[in-house]
């Protein structure tokens, strides 16, 4: 028997934070050695940080990565353990995304990534080139700063494996696991028993299950005939490293298709190490099936880089306390819990790394600002839980953010107390606001402990309207007062845009927009006046802002364009921008019980309304009525457009099958599809100014890097809509057919 202890890590690395990244890497190696591990695997590109984006093109990034690697090689913590470390490497004037395998101050192998992630949020081909010489290696001549440390002039560079005295290790990088013909298949047939996977995989709702199944399958079987077997070490980045993504950690170790160790998916820890004790003979017995042996006998060979050590200790088999790690049941969070935890961790990283001292949000009494405030409260709960566990880094960050002096002994162990120090809310009402929304905003802020103020904006709103009338000689009216749609929209925009900040800290800018007249100056003046007074009065140096409810900043409303430009975009960050209204409501219902916040029930039962038009006996503004479609319908449109990759015509044909038995194909389905694409197209320009938002779903309309589309469309889509009308004219209307007749036809 050969017992060995392996570890996979989740590190909260930060793009270009070379010193901090180095310290976290060394901390993880120390923890690994303390647990008796002989193999340590870290996340992808952990030295510079995965999210460097175009900084990967800069020579400085590669230079500093080599310098940090040199420090790791010289550090005593990295002795007597094989370490798999990630960094960019320039080989023959070509930059590769690499793993560097080191042991006792020497570089054993530089293994470049062969299959790059270049979909969705990922643009690896923009910075790196894939290694195309499979199962081949070349000599890589080391920089002089490394030569002086290792005593080596050149090292193997390419697709090879590492052979120890007792087993064989193969490297797989992130996206390579997701490809149809993953490298671990051929490596396993050539005798590799331990596979490492260093990943930079981001969080999406419901995504973890797919990742876990791929890892389990990697060491179970492939194509039904191959009993692959093996140990799979999965390490992943965790946290916000400077962009819209949250990397959700969840380091794992699998053995022969079963998960035996799993790390946290959402955590405030900067360093998390997952370890397991394995009997390597379990891999060999799993591979004893003859069909696998026949394929292995004819498999192509990998070059083996030999290292003079054994991963299993000489006396391990004689230690009765050393027990093999048993399979566990994988822990999954429900989507509502993912919304509570992922954006909350992302907000904490933003808050502490931007060195601001809190968040500010105008509460409207609606579901969007309610969800955002609840996520901030969830963040405060996570911080308090970490402080109660004695997490020194979280405690230090909490004291600094709360403005405590250096000698303070205050602990952020009460989430409501913490919220009262760092979270500011206000209700910016007008004559069109209702008593109910004002009450809900106040009660929510009290329930979560936020510092809340209530103010009326009527003086500013009237001043702007009077200024417009004075300049133009025209007085616009709401449609309930006899005004046109254009007047009605302009008056709503003036109110909406006054309630959102467009500043970081207390720095603010004025903007004039022809799209929504008059809305730059008053907006910034009102928000900045409120913030300046709050921060001055409470002795706070700077405050960062979240997107507010009036911004209409969740996913479906952004997609539909149901928002005021430079209203939604006038905050710093947005934790709900890629989450559908349907998921947000489920999250609020979950939070009501999980966080003991009964006030959230009032938000769930309230009719969504912008409250930008006068309320009369016969008219109350409704979001869904204004949009001409329901939020559930918008969620369907969003998924079909992005996930199913549908244009107008293919969306219509799909919805004929989904909705054709309840809705008319001509007068309802066709018109809904055309209205959605018309509004989507003519409002797409608004997406170019939206606040950076947390990426949470595959249907996100984020214009920055995930959903790249034009902002100038032929919004009436004459060719596509004509095809829809032509098909709708000949499709039979089954919406009025009885259920029994539908069954006969089917």
Task: Characterize the structure shown.
Strands 1, 2, 3, 4, 5, 8, 9, 10, 11, 12, 13, 14, 15 and 16 form a 14-stranded mixed β-sheet that branches. Strands 19-18-17-22 form a 4-stranded parallel β-sheet. The chain contains 26 helices and 22 strands. The chain has 746 residues and is of the alpha/beta class. Residues 222-226, 501-525, 546-552 and 742-746 have low confidence and may be disordered.
End-to-end distance:
62 Å
Portion of residues in beta strands equals: 15-25%
Which structural class fits the helix and strand makeup? alpha/beta
How many strand segments?
Answer: 22
Helix content: 25-40%
List low-pLDDT spans. 222-226, 501-525, 546-552, 742-746
Provide tags for this entry.
22 strands; 39% helix; four-stranded parallel sheet; disordered C terminus; alpha/beta; 14-stranded mixed sheet; 746 residues; 26 helices
Short recap of the structure:
By secondary structure, the protein is α/β, with parallel strands linked by helices.
SSE layout:
Layout: E1 3-11, H1 18-34, E2 39-41, H2 59-74, E3 82-91, E4 94-103, E5 106-112, H3 124-127, E6 137-141, H4 144-150, E7 154-158, E8 161-163, E9 168-173, H5 175-178, H6 183-189, E10 194-199, H7 208-218, E11 231-239, E12 247-248, E13 252-255, E14 258-262, E15 271-279, H8 281-286, H9 290-297, E16 304-306, H10 335-353, E17 359-362, H11 367-388, H12 392-401, H13 415-422, E18 423-429, H14 435-448, E19 451-456, H15 458-472, H16 485-497, E20 503-504, E21 507-508, H17 519-537, E22 544-545, H18 555-560, H19 581-594, H20 600-605, H21 623-627, H22 631-642, H23 648-659, H24 665-682, H25 718-730, H26 739-745
Parallel strand pairs: 1-2, 1-11, 2-3, 8-16, 9-10, 10-11, 17-18, 17-22, 18-19
Antiparallel strand pairs: 1-15, 3-4, 4-5, 6-7, 8-9, 11-12, 11-13, 13-14, 20-21
Helix pairs in contact: 1-2, 2-4, 10-11, 10-19, 11-13, 11-14, 11-19, 16-17, 23-24, 23-25, 24-25
